[in-house]
Structure prediction request, 137 residues.
Amino acid sequence: EQNLEARPTVQAYSMVLNACAFADSVEVDGKIVKASPKQQMKAFQIAELIMSRLGKEPYPNVKSTSMTYGTFIKCCGRLDLPNNIAQESASRAFADCCQTGYVSDFVFTQLRYALPPEKFLNVLAKNGYKNLNSKGK
Prediction:
């Protein structure tokens, strides 16, 4: 019997984001190899689409959380994207996360991984985090 009322949850969206984050490698002839830049960019575009949808709260109580922000930032750090795209997207997602109040240790950890140290500290300072050491603490 079909459930025509079924709707995706934020967990389902998070799982898609996580799959995108790990699209940096693929299996070919039983070996794990680096995915092509085109494949990785496609995964990133899917991740951007997911975040865009979540920003519009597609269903009641289905919106971005610290998990979705952190996992999107993980996409920026893991996928082999041009630096300007990866860093700008991670920085923008962190700023949005700060605006919504969903910053968590997971988000900080993913941001630290996604950005070079100086950029990481600059993004933190730009979003109101002052007097930090080189590890962002």
Observations:
- The mean pLDDT is 92.
